[in-house]
Amino acid sequence: MVDLSVQLKALRLKNPVMTASGTFGYGEEYLDFMDLSRIGGIIVKGTTIRPREGNDYPRMAETASGMLNAVGLQNKGVNYFVKNIYPRICDFDTNVLVNVSGSTVEDYVQAAEIIQELDKIPGIELNVSCPNVKEGGMAFGVSAKALCQVVKEVRAVYRKHLMLKLSPNVTDITVLAKTAEEQGADSLSLINTLLGMAIDAEKQRPKLSTITGGLSGPCVKPVALRMVWQTYKAVKIPVVGMGGISNTADAIEFMLAGASAIQVGTANFIDPVVSVTIAEGIEDYCQRHGLKSASELTGALRLD
Amino acid sequence: MVDLSVQLKALRLKNPVMTASGTFGYGEEYLDFMDLSRIGGIIVKGTTIRPREGNDYPRMAETASGMLNAVGLQNKGVNYFVKNIYPRICDFDTNVLVNVSGSTVEDYVQAAEIIQELDKIPGIELNVSCPNVKEGGMAFGVSAKALCQVVKEVRAVYRKHLMLKLSPNVTDITVLAKTAEEQGADSLSLINTLLGMAIDAEKQRPKLSTITGGLSGPCVKPVALRMVWQTYKAVKIPVVGMGGISNTADAIEFMLAGASAIQVGTANFIDPVVSVTIAEGIEDYCQRHGLKSASELTGALRLD
Amino acid sequence: MSSIANKLVLDFILYEKEEWPNSALMKFKTTEILPEIFPGQFVQVKVEDSPETYLRRPLSVNFIDRGNSCLWLLVQKVGPGTRKLAALALDSKVNMILPLGNSFSLPEPKKESGIQNIVLIGGGIGTAPLLFLGKSLRELGYLPNFLLGGRSAADILQLEEFRLYGKVFITTQDGTLGEQGLVTEHSILNEIQVDRIYCCGPKPMMQAVASLAKKINCWCEVSLENLMACGFGACLCCVEKTNKGHVCTCTEGPVFNINELLW
Amino acid sequence: MSSIANKLVLDFILYEKEEWPNSALMKFKTTEILPEIFPGQFVQVKVEDSPETYLRRPLSVNFIDRGNSCLWLLVQKVGPGTRKLAALALDSKVNMILPLGNSFSLPEPKKESGIQNIVLIGGGIGTAPLLFLGKSLRELGYLPNFLLGGRSAADILQLEEFRLYGKVFITTQDGTLGEQGLVTEHSILNEIQVDRIYCCGPKPMMQAVASLAKKINCWCEVSLENLMACGFGACLCCVEKTNKGHVCTCTEGPVFNINELLW
Ligand SMILES: Cc1cc2nc3c(=O)[nH]c(=O)nc-3n(C[C@H](O)[C@H](O)[C@H](O)COP(=O)(O)OP(=O)(O)OC[C@H]3O[C@@H](n4cnc5c(N)ncnc54)[C@H](O)[C@@H]3O)c2cc1C
Ligand SMILES: Cc1cc2nc3c(=O)[nH]c(=O)nc-3n(C[C@H](O)[C@H](O)[C@H](O)COP(=O)(O)OP(=O)(O)OC[C@H]3O[C@@H](n4cnc5c(N)ncnc54)[C@H](O)[C@@H]3O)c2cc1C
Ligand SMILES: Cc1cc2nc3c(=O)[nH]c(=O)nc-3n(C[C@H](O)[C@H](O)[C@H](O)COP(=O)(O)O)c2cc1C
Ligand SMILES: Cc1cc2nc3c(=O)[nH]c(=O)nc-3n(C[C@H](O)[C@H](O)[C@H](O)COP(=O)(O)O)c2cc1C
Ligand code: FES
Ligand code: FES
């Protein structure tokens, strides 16, 4: 028997597989396809203090082994979430974390305070790295000073698991990772999308209404893996890896590079059951490699 | 008749298509396949002041729609180039630029001075962005201060076309682009490879001897296109775009985003004639779209 | 909108194919029992082994035969995904997620007094969902009027099938079949009192139909083809701006009453 | 090393295929005239429509029939590219770059006094280039000894073809065919005075052969299978550390005399 559970500090996941924010709705969208209790956790849609209409259509463009999105954090706001969505999803037999975005530090703090009151939400993922929103968002993710402030102030009010989601659009991700660690983040998740762009050569126009958008999918995996590896070596808090994970081997690679858990994002769109398949695959892999627990994989990359 | 020629300041290319350093050898490797006079220019292999053995094998790993390389600037040094290679390639009927790398500012300056003496080399491409070499290289590409110094000192001695190749591994490429422009670079080329990593899940080992390496190919195109667009808007000097260009539509997209010329890299490995095909494709595109000159494409992205 | 069955991921086998230069009718079978599917719903098809098609491709259900677990897709070859799909050999396996989206609103079974004349307007490949819809309307006692438009005769597909379920009217822009012109210019629209319009086709054509419908004050539903990443409400990429704000066309659509749209 | 023909990019058609569980012999034809190709040279094959195989795949020339513009490849299915290739239907079009690499050094035509016993040692799919090499040696008057090794009988391919050109000796690790053990343990190596060894196979096996050759002071060439991106000297990815430093195995190899290597 393989022990698949992993700890992100005090937060226990029954297995290392979570689903990534913005790619898994509120979990409900996947109930027809899978049993949510089979995965370690889900991160629900990006939530902001006030409702957001999101960006104009078109919001997506396909690229080589990936896609660009420019959803722009469309959501009905944290109060709507608390009243209307939380009651529907609070009994999911898995960890439900809320992904929180904001334009000001105050936004983040307020949203965190409101979500803290929800008994069955064991943590939040602070999204300081959305490339699709003008006001703030990514600004916090690429400047150590801004990041420091937002983590510090949220930490001051939020006592449950505080996961910080890092942006890959930076020169040195370890600087931001260490800042978040110093300010008391419980774990780091990465990567968010890479800022990209697509053009229709015939129409001579951008494919996205916002011109640029966030790149995800298998194309970003090499960059994500490198950043997870760099971050793992730079901090002591657990790292949650993502970026193009589509199958068990991908998930194992992120864990070897230092991830304690992983998130599956865009791949859910192509195979809505893939997160369960990966959780099962990790168990199988551990068995084949004689590992007693999945957590032994974390950082086990051999360099000799 | 479409006028395919483009100007990079004083440097005239007969068409906008060049081949990217490190993917085209010294041009000779492609003579069996194509007529070099059919393209606007070639950038030869990264050259350093002293010979370099390069990194250990394995040096490459395939990734989704792309590859990682860790060649590490293997070359026989600038003096060997001058004596043994230049005489063989100086009569190519196209612009031959030398890609120059170094570990210190002095390295760059010395190499530039030596290459300046070669009559038939109209310019150099300063590579401050190789992610595969420990000593320097990328350090110059990610710090505005270091970049400022290297461009300034090379500019002080080098009077022909000075193209500066930017690294994509930065938070804000426009900061570096503007720095290079201020210090007198004649043009900017981008992007070099994204720093990435690949792991063999079964062997639990990195796939590259250097653990991390440079990502190229279609997977990086959305990031490259975005950076070309950002750079084009930030500077007045010409921009040479690259990153995943594999066909005519890709090349057109980079020009619409602001590139005056483009470079074809990894795609040469899959289709060694692709640069000629693209040059012909651009002519055809201009005809279909009623453009008199290819240079009209530069920055012509429609945003209305 | 009808009550919708659970979404499934199912493998199908291509058992019959009819190909034209720009399109193909692909008939699939599955060994499983097909869920209930309504006209206007679509499937998300995985195009295997195509480096350019990472995402699934949304395609309308053209026809179903639940008894035999058969499902037809009518595919226009516009890019790598649809070309690759249309080129599949018989017996190829194809994975689909279905049923997706809402569906056309079906009227009450026909009565003497109620709705009489229903016109189904399809442009180009937009005719795909109208065959299934026409059959359903026929089963409710109506004799649908299919008004099919295209650039030229070659664009008008499945004529025989349409004739099974109703009357067919055609326009082509080059006049090679039916009346010359656009669908909105077809004489039938002046000749009968139109009670209800269902429409699917390129956006400019649907917008023209919508303004015609508004002018003649006619109930009208259109089926949108917004770009989709997931197809089942998870990504929020496929939105259309409506009077309720941004709504997902893959769950609250693809079918909309024109009154909901901001056209 | 022989003088090498110009490299070409050519389309081939698959006209015949023999398939085993883990491998396939694929016979290709082209309408063009094949360039001169020497044993040990390889081709770079484009695997179409496979999202996982962006780069070409290097494969040794197993056999050629220049008169009929035929070229054979022996492919072991180890990953997506080789699996996809081996699954191709007859008449599929396949694009190749060829001829690539140096080649095995052929001896002077056989004389009474010179080289007598040549052993060609192949492990697993490493036997691929040895058929073509064996035929060339036979044409020079030699009767090559093919020493073929594998994990089990199923790994020993093309036995009949090898028997056309020389004597065949076999080892399998499980003893299901020939002598049980590794190629380096085969009795023939003790029974005859070996004048020359050509070897291709997995690296550990080639290294074992190389040290045996050094021990018995025998001339020996091996063919490496380093990872390649381009295959024609442009990328510098395929290097092997030799006594001349890093050299490209795609241009200065894949064939090396063991004295050049740092094994
Ligand atoms: C609900 C719905 C039902 C549809 N029904 C049919 C049908 O029955 N028959 C049919 O032939 N086509 C139908 N389409 C359109 C079809 O999905 C696209 O033509 C197809 O995805 C294009 O893929 P490609 O790889 O061939 O071309 P691409 O190169 O990807 O694109 C070619 C064109 O198709 C559009 N397109 C690309 N991807 C999508 C996508 N995910 N969603 C919508 N449009 C896209 C692009 O904007 C472009 O104009 C439907 C679309 C939707 C949303
Ligand atoms: C000069 C040369 C001649 C070869 N001749 C043959 C032959 O005749 N028959 C045959 O079956 N195989 C031959 N190979 C090996 C063959 O190229 C690889 O097995 C193939 O590229 C694997 O591709 P894949 O997508 O199936 O597997 P992948 O998943 O890409 O890889 C599976 C395994 O193959 C290795 N491999 C992958 N890509 C390459 C590459 N570009 N070059 C070398 N190894 C690679 C990987 O390291 C891995 O161990 C030769 C290799 C070289 C360099
Ligand atoms: C359509 C879409 C919407 C997303 N929305 C969010 C979001 O609201 N908040 C967030 O932190 N990340 C968001 N992301 C980023 C993903 O959570 C994930 O970080 C990224 O896609 C990389 O993982 P992947 O390659 O597995 O998809 C979104 C991604 C996609 C594709
Ligand atoms: C094998 C390989 C070697 C490279 N060597 C160099 C180099 O020496 N100097 C340099 O400036 N860029 C080098 N590059 C980067 C390319 O010139 C180019 O910037 C990059 O590959 C992106 O373009 P592409 O996606 O079209 O390949 C190398 C790229 C590859 C794949
Ligand atoms: S396509 Fe994903 S929500 Fe509609
Ligand atoms: S494979 Fe590119 S140089 Fe050998």
CATH C-level name of chain A = Alpha Beta
The side-by-side strand order for the widest beta sheet of chain A comes to 3-4-7-8-9-10-15-16
Radius of gyration of chain C: 18 Å
Global structural class of chain A: alpha/beta
Largest interface (C-beta under 8 Å): A-B, 48 and 48 residues
The low-confidence runs of chain C, each spanning 5 or more residues with pLDDT under 50, are none
* N-end to C-end Cα span of chain C: 21 Å
Oligomeric assembly: heterotetramer
Features:
heterotetramer; A: 304 residues; alpha/beta; TIM Barrel; eight-stranded parallel beta barrel; four-stranded antiparallel β-sheet; 9 helices; 16 strands; 22% strand; globular; C: 263 residues; Elongation Factor Tu (Ef-tu), domain 3; Rossmann fold; 2 domains; seven-stranded antiparallel β-sheet; seven-stranded mixed β-sheet; 5 helices; 16% helix; binds flavin-adenine dinucleotide; binds flavin mononucleotide; binds FE2/S2 (inorganic) cluster
